[in-house]
């Protein structure tokens, strides 16, 4: 089967779809720098409609505020690419969906947009379960190219979702 995604991402997505289906659970995504690619990887798998509840692509600050309830003060104080914003994004994705587990990502894929304090390749990911478990990861992938940053982020996000299911 021809796919947009590499085999390792498809394998991880397939495992999530299989395990979430068996557990009767749903997942939601809140994506900025990946532009919906995490949901895309999950929905590449047959049967994903039983697992993927919805995806929020919130590329702009106003979308993060309107669709996920990210606080304006958080964006002003910490910026869109921050742990605080990722945490509020994942909370909003859970609150606005029927999913038991959600994943949120916000970062700088490049090639531009980086700064000394927030370089290209910086991504904050947050995964949360309705049971309250929250995982945050700050990834510094480096200036490895836009597509590679996005693919690396998908890999990390899928691993975080799988780890919450196992928790």
TrEMBL record:
Under the heading Pfam families, the entry gives: CinA
Q: Which superkingdom, per the lineage?
A: Bacteria
- Protein name, please? CinA family protein
Species of the source: Rhizobium changzhiense
**Domain CinA C-terminal, first and last residues per copy:** 12-164
